Amino acid sequence: MQILVWVFEVLFISSLVGVLPLSLAETTSPGVCSEADRAALLAFKAKIVKDTTGILSSWIGRDCCGGDWEGVQCNPAGRVTTLALQGPVKDSSMYMKGTLSSSLGSLPFLQVLVISGMKLITGPIPDSFSKLTRLTQLVLEDNSLQGNIPSGLGLLSHLQTLSLAGNHLKGPVPPSLGNLRNLGMINLGRNSLSGPIPTSLKNLHLLQSFDLSFNSLSGFIPEFLGQFRNITFIDLSNNQLSAHLPISMFNLVSLSYLSLSHNLLTGTIPEQVGNLKSLTSLSLSSNKFIGHIPASISRLQNLWSLNLSRNGFSDPLPDVSNRGIPSLLSIDLSFNNLSLGTVPKWITERQLSDVNLAGCKLRGSLPRFTRPDSLSSIDLSNNFLTGSISTFFTKMTSLQKVKLSNNLLKFDLSELKVPDGISSIDLHSNQVCGSLSSILNNRTSSFLEVIDVSNNLISGTIPEFSEGLNLKELNIGSNKIAGQIPSSISNLIELERLDVSRNLITGTIPMSLGRLANLHWLDLSINRLTGRIPTSLLGIKFMRHASFRANRLCGEIPQGRPYNIFPASAYAHNLCLCGKPMPPCRGKKQETSQ
């Protein structure tokens, strides 16, 4: 879903290219840069104490308008009109460290100011930015800016784009932002803003994109949202908004994306939801909605993603005809008060990519899908499904993730024939038997990253691991697996999480386990392991959780972080483990006393 949000925002910003200031597209050679503007830029550079992007290293020489100063553009008079510094968000090694200089407020001809993805730019947004009265775009995304949003930004009357997302801003949304009557996009998401959505924002009649997600906003969703006739994107998810949905919202015939998930919203979905004829994605998950899902939802001809999970919706589901919701690709009705019994035909008989019906009181055998080749992800966990799995995956050639945990499935692992491209299998808490070698062998796909078969009836031993596997999570806990942990465990070089707890495993902990540099979760508890905890584990630098409890281990616990600061309960009920956080070893105690 985050990818979808990103696509919407990129498309919106791209659409503004046609309305950007002429200076961005001018072919006329700019003049020599103003000395005052050059000084303002150098004052900004001076406040950046570290720049691993290398952008500011190009800011040398007298002429900031000659094209050599990266991110700087000027008009023919030599005045700076654009400052656009964008870092790669996903590359943690590329950043700027420092603060925003108030000197940028002394660039009177600036029309575009973009400083985004720099990660370590801290401190407040300078009040001086309120003097940039020609500004049409202000984008300060994905930094570490702090403090309140300056109310003076409401003076930037020409502003069309305002994005301060992905920072550490707090306090209220300033009511003064309601003065920005030319605003087409506002994104204040992923901060720590609080308080209500100010009523003054009703003046933003040109708004097309409205994102306040991932904050701590409270109060209700304002009725005035229904006045934004041009709006296509609304994301108010992950806040503390309450009360009913305003009926006016369902007049927004241009609205394409609506996410109100993870709030405290109550009441029912009104029948008027069928009026949102442009809607492609609707997410109302993790709220407190009740009642029936309205039949009018079948009129949404463009809807391809529907997420109503984790609410209190009750039976019956609407009777959707073959022509209803014709564009639907992804549906999530998990964890409501639904007692479906079987999966409705209007779900099994259409071409879907994602089906999520966890906790819907499904019973009987696993469902058969008419178009299994289109399925990418299936979650039927927390139901009462029974029987075998032998033919379930037939023709599911596109399947990547499957979750069938917490059911009553009863089969041998040798019956499990999964598609080659699958990346995640979760079968925990069923009645699965057989040996792990049926799914972990030299034919195991390199695409497979997650296996969870915990809390079943699996027996046998842990097989040898061949090279080339890309497993990141292996959970085989709470079974009847015996034998030793093979030293070839070190071949799982991508492994981040390993749980073999509550089995019958014997032998010693292999030294080779210390080669799993990415491991951050390790649970070996409640087995029959003997010997020492190998010091090679000290080579795992990012371990956040480890448990060796209830084995037959003895000797000194590796005396280095994090093992010597884990709680004593992680080592309890062994034969004779000693050293921090347990009591000191005898030999060590004698040496100390000498």
TrEMBL record:
Signal peptide positions (record): 1-25
Subcellular location: Cell membrane
Main subcellular localisation: membrane
InterPro entries: Leu-rich_rpt (IPR001611), Leu-rich_rpt_typical-subtyp (IPR003591), LRR_dom_sf (IPR032675), LRR_N_plant-typ (IPR013210), StomDev_PlantInt_Reg (IPR052941)
Keywords: Cell membrane, Leucine-rich repeat, Membrane, Repeat, Signal, Transmembrane, Transmembrane helix
Domain Leucine-rich repeat-containing N-terminal plant-type: 35-75
Coiled coil region boundaries: none
GO cellular component, one term: plasma membrane
Entries under PANTHER family matching the protein: OS01G0149700 PROTEIN, OS01G0162200 PROTEIN
Protein name per its UniProtKB record: Leucine-rich repeat-containing N-terminal plant-type domain-containing protein
Record organism: Gossypium raimondii
Taxon lineage: Eukaryota, Viridiplantae, Streptophyta, Embryophyta, Tracheophyta
